[in-house]
């Protein structure tokens, strides 16, 4: 089984651009992995810049 890991810095809140980055990276990958491991919340870029932002966006 071929396993791939892709580490990148997602763009905060920009799902389309993050997905585009993944697709473009995979187009250059040969052979393709059977399983691809991505960072948590890789598409949404949902990371916090600081504690204040985390509190403001928390539920």
Sheet with the most strands: spatial strand order: 1-2
Strand content: 5-15%
Q: How many strands? A: 2
* Discrete helix count: 2
Cα gyration radius (Å): 14 Å
Name the shape in a single word. elongated
Task: Estimate the mean pLDDT confidence.
Answer: 85
The SSE order reads: EHEH
- N-C termini distance: 40 Å
Low-confidence stretches: none
Largest sheet: 2 strands, parallel
Structure class: alpha+beta
Q: Estimate percent helicity.
A: 25-40%
SSE diagram, text form:
Elements: E1 3-5, H1 15-27, E2 35-37, H2 51-57
Parallel strand pairs: 1-2
What's this model, at a glance?
Helices cover 34% and strands 10% of the residues. With 59 residues, it is of the alpha+beta class.
């Amino acid at each position: 089984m071929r396993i791939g890991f892709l580490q990148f810095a997602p763009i905060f809140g920009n799902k389309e651009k993050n997905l585009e980055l993944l697709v473009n990276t995979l187009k250059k990958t040969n052979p393709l992995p059977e399983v691809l491991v991505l960072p948590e919340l890789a598409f949404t870029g949902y990371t916090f810049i600081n504690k204040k932002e985390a509190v403001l966006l928390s539920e």
